[in-house]
Amino acid sequence: MENAIYSSMLSANQLLEKQTIISNNIANASTTGFKEKFFYTLQTLDAKNLYNNSYNKIVKEYYNLSPGTLHHTERNLDIFIKDNAWLTVKDINGQEAYTKNGHLKINAQNKLTVQDNEVILQYGNIKIPNNVNLKILSDGIITSIEKKKNKIFNTQIGKLKLTYLPEKNIIQKDNGLFYLKINNQLNKYSSNINHNIRLQSGMLEESNVNPSKNMIEMISNARQFDMQMKMISICDQNSERANQLMDINN
């Protein structure tokens, strides 16, 4: 009886964790560059503690990294990073992170940012000159466009840091940014610059979340959760009846 209740409680907790992931997917269905997240938990009986009903819990998170729908914006500071390449940014703690969100902005300090995270360049840091138009070329080079005396001047002022990441070693944190799991790989990729990565300006990659699919899965999980709760209730009722019978016999 206790085993059945314990198993149902484990399943119910797993379903609640899945619902949290699905809810986050649905909430970010319109977030630029957001990648759909999946989750599963594996419970295995601990062979060393069979009599104590001890279980080993393995939690696995993985991501759908397929591209989302492309949206033409015609804005020079909107970029789509092609293939499985990523834009490198600095989070609020100064740590290197990665994103597919290419909606770049210039902050009050004349720095390029994505969702208030400073964009990292290949070499050094730059401040965007005032009163200039920016253009980002397909290889990530940032140029300023100025008109002086009826002449157009293009000046290279920096280059975006773009990189490929090993899909098996990335993890997304609560801030929506992706990170590499292993520190030594983080250091390795921090200096790894790939000159073959291409991007396209005037376009944004939308979220790849399928709202209908996630809603169906959410409903299915809710029904399974109800079943587990009913199972616990039935086991509890059976336990009470068994106790009553024991009292009668005594």
Automatic annotation (TrEMBL):
- The molecule here is called Flagellar basal-body rod protein FlgF
Is Glycosyltransferase there in the keyword field? no
Family assignment from sequence similarity: Belongs to the flagella basal body rod proteins family.
Locate the Flagellar basal-body/hook protein C-terminal domain: which residues? 200-245
What's in the keyword line of the UniProt record? Bacterial flagellum, Cell projection, Cilium, Flagellum
Pfam families associated with the record: Flg_bb_rod, Flg_bbr_C, LlgE_F_G_D1
Where is this protein found?
Answer: Bacterial flagellum basal body
Gene that produces this protein: flgF
Q: Look up the record and report any one GO term of the cellular component aspect.
A: bacterial-type flagellum basal body, rod
Example GO biological process term? Answer: bacterial-type flagellum-dependent swarming motility
How does this chain assemble? The basal body constitutes a major portion of the flagellar organelle and consists of five rings (E,L,P,S, and M) mounted on a central rod. The rod consists of about 26 subunits of FlgG in the distal portion, and FlgB, FlgC and FlgF are thought to build up the proximal portion of the rod with about 6 subunits each.
Q: Where mainly located?
A: other
The record's listing under SUPFAM superfamilies reads: Flagellar hook protein flgE (SSF117143)
Which ranges carry the Flagellar hook protein FlgE/F/G-like D1 domain? 81-143
